[in-house]
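look at this:
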Amino acid sequence: PIYWMDAYWRFYLIKHNRESLLAKTVHADPGPISGIPTGSLVLGNHGDRVIESMVSSGELVTVSSVPEMGGDPYFMLLEKRGS
């Protein structure tokens, strides 16, 4: 389950002064991303098998990890690569 993703996304956009991206934000379940423009940012969960397969295939590239208070990564920020 992806608890609090909306709150994390909003928090980090504000933290990095990128609130303009809120208007472009689209929520989607993991699955085919062929319709997402190249360069789009994707927020996903560590350990999600669908996300991990897209990273392995090169469709997505990990930009950074978002650690929880205990230090373990929970979310990951990814970028869609072109075909």
